Every structure is written in C-alpha cells, then in structure tokens.
Mlr2029 protein (Aliirhizobium smilacinae), 209 residues
Amino acid sequence: MPKTANSDIELLKSWTLSSAATLGSSVRAKGIFQEIQARLPTVSKKSLVLEGSDLTLAMPASDKAAFVAAVAIASKVVDEVDTLPVIPREIQDILTIKTSERHRWLADGRLPSAGTRTVRLNGRARRITFHVFDPKVVEDLLDRGTVDEWREEDAEAKAEKKLKAAYQAKLTRLLKKTHKASKKTKRDADDQNVNLKGWDDFDVDGLLR
C-alpha cells in the first residue's frame, strides 16, 4: 500500500461523560469539553468534538505523536472531571436558577464558593473574575432540593419585609398627623393667651366691672 494512503487513516478515541460527571447538564458537558480543548495543543483542538455526552478525538494516522499526546491530556481531564470546578453558567443550568438568585445566595453565604477563576475574554484584552463551585456541593444541593427551600425562605422574607414597610409607612403617617394636630392645638392655645394692646389700661378704667 502506498505510504500516502496511510495518511487518510484516522486515529480514533472516544470517552463518554457519565451523568455523575455532567450532573445531568448539557452546559456542564460543554464546559468539560471546552476545558479539555483549552489544554490541548493548537494542532489538536479542532480534532476533538462533542456529541451529546460523547467526546471523540479523530486525527490522521500521520499525526500519531500529536494524537497520543492529546489522548493523554483528554483522558487526564476525564479522570479528574469529578473534581473539576463548576462555573456560573453550569451551576445555573444544573440547579435551574437565575443569575440574580446565584448572586443573592452567594452573597448571603448559602451558596458556598470554591474560589475564583480569572479568564481572558476571546479576542479581548479584558479579563473577568468569577466564582466557581465544588461539584460535590452542587450535587448535594441538587439531590436535597435545597433551591426550593431557599426560594421559600426568600418569599417569606420578602413578604415580611413588605409587611414591615407597610407598618412603617402607616406609623409615619400617624406620627405626621399627630404632629400636625399637636401644632394646631398649641397654636390655638397661643391665640387664646395673647395679650391685647391697651387691655390693661382698659381694665384700670373699671370698664370691666
């Protein structure tokens, strides 16, 4: 067989991401795929594809050395995927939460951070820093349905805050009303006690007797 024909033969290697690895999230699967791609040499990046939860690396036989190196890198990430931090867009998909909820629960300590990561945006000089999360913690939150409990707590807190605001507004109106009434009473009393000019002289003349 001619030597050139061998270059058309592909070298293949596949991995299937378990549901435990993806936590049932296609966004998490894509995140793992992108993490592997980021670690691969430039020559191998486009040779890795993701279909559902299946990762496939396909390269020409002539690139055997690069293929072997890429397999080693991808296999290492797949083996360590259970410890790979969960990034914001992944946790939002896994727990079905909104960005505002993630920010709120992160700020009040209910959603524990596993640290931060800083990345450069594609094609830009600007870097962004964001919190990442422990996959074991995220899995526990998912299994226990904790998000539903947090939402109930938030709803109760919101209702209580609204009730307090209404009470405070009512109290403020009552105080203003009481203050106005007090001022009016004082003003009426002052009007009754005012000394009329010439009154004493009028009294001396005995005209009031």
Q: What stands out?
A: Residues 156-189 form one domain. The mean pLDDT is 86. The longest strand covers residues 10-16.
